[in-house]
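Input (structure):
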């Protein structure tokens, strides 16, 4: 059995993102804050798209279940995710590959 979110990343998210990369609309080594303004904070501004895709951004993989149960809708969930700060320093760009 696989978690549906795990399958969604491989089948939908990665494929869609790679189409955007191919079209020149997204660059893997560009900061995510270029595309999502809410991530322009001092701790997240330098995280790249590649680091998010390779789980080397320093951000944790998920939110605690207790916290998730208290979130009422998808807008509130997105707002909470965008307030997240890294638990560790992002890996240097040269050490990440796709």
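Output (sequence):
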């Amino acid at each position: 059995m696989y978690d549906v979110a795990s399958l969604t990343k491989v089948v939908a998210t990665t494929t869609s993102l790679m189409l955007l990369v191919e079209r020149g609309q997204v660059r893997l080594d560009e900061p995510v804050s270029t595309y999502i303004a809410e991530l322009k904070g001092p701790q997240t501004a330098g995280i790249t798209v590649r680091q998010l895709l390779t789980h080397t951004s320093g951000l944790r993989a998920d939110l605690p279940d207790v916290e998730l149960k208290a979130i009422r809708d998808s807008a509130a969930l997105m707002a909470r995710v965008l307030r997240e700060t890294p638990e560790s320093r992002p890996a240097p760009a040269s050490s990440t590959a796709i």
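Notes: Residues 4-22 form the longest helix (19 residues). The chain has a mean pLDDT of 86.
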